[in-house]
Design a protein that fits this description.
homodimer; 8 helices; three-stranded antiparallel sheet; mainly alpha; DNA-binding; Arc Repressor Mutant, subunit A; 204 residues
Amino acid sequence: MTDEWQPHTETEGVETSPAPSRKGPERAAAEYALLGLIAQTGSGEIHGYDLSRSFAEGALGRIIRLESGMLYHYLKKLARDGYITSRIERQSGRPDRQVHTLTADGDALLRMWIAAPVRSTREIRLEFLVKLYLARTVDPRHAVTLVTEQRSVMRTRAARLTEQLATPQPADADTSFGESVLRLRLTQTRAALDWLDTLPESRN
Amino acid sequence: MTDEWQPHTETEGVETSPAPSRKGPERAAAEYALLGLIAQTGSGEIHGYDLSRSFAEGALGRIIRLESGMLYHYLKKLARDGYITSRIERQSGRPDRQVHTLTADGDALLRMWIAAPVRSTREIRLEFLVKLYLARTVDPRHAVTLVTEQRSVMRTRAARLTEQLATPQPADADTSFGESVLRLRLTQTRAALDWLDTLPESRN
DNA sequence: ATGCTCATGTAACCAGTTACATGATTTG
DNA sequence: CAAATCATGTAACTGGTTACATGAGCAT
């Protein structure tokens, strides 16, 4: 009765993560998007400005936004944490550029993140889409795993909400409002499930 | 072709707002929630600690979270901007308390915010729920207005998404992904609409 | 001469979270 | 006596946004 319809919390996903090494704090989806774009490049090398364009022109730029300032900041951060290595490429007549490469750690981190479903319905709209996009380009099998597990998460969630709605509550104003909140969450969860079912990865 | 499925932007609602006076920047939903709680009190006066409890124990605390530090910060902000007035109430044996009252400006601001639907589907989960809850307690007619207009917003949105999906696109990988994104948004929008239709305010 | 593309950033700012400070008084 | 309640905050930190700085070459 205490944990019925819990409040929105911004820093969620900390307790649900498997936390095997607890290396760093949660990264923004944009950071993984950068890792993914680096992984995508044929040569394995790419510099910031190119990343910026790939981001803005590609599908990722239509899901999340990433200003150049933040992009270079994330590249530094990823390099500092050992997920990419960066070397300077001298150019004549043009400014020098830094080319970045994924490390083994970076590749592992990216694949782990891609394969893990998001916990809440709200995160479907951003995180999950980025994961799906990257999974498809990095390794289509990851996409199948991701979609399968995400469907499972959403089904569990829908079941829990249904169960909560089934248990009768005292009928005051707050409770009826709370029921509305639960029904909203349930419809949104079901909508997400329906959508997941239409993805090509759902043919299994 | 350029503005098909636009990116997620955090600072949205600025350009869509009617901007009549442009008094202050966008406020957090929690600030309006505080205004609403102050408006709810019978005497018209309430102090921070009571607000904190009302918040945590009531339905609002299950939708959004508000730490005491931020609560007092918002109260100062609202007082500074002239939406509430605060006076100190001396107590013997207890710490002095500050009791807060809505000003005419504050009341107007609250009602304006409550009556205005949210622009995006994403905001349904937080902002809209807070608006609905406050509308019901402050003035049930506001709730009818809000729900009616919100349904209209969602219908327009659904129509636009449907239209975008109808226009055929070149069939590359990015486009098919983009179509999935559009379909996700459409299902989520429709789910929100279905839920809105189940609210008592939708009987008109 | 003007401004655009390349290429990488810095600086200032703002919002929010977490944790703690204070100090009396009542309750177990 | 310890702990919770009352009541209001402060301080440090995190992270993200916006805007601008730099400076060469190239196209109009």
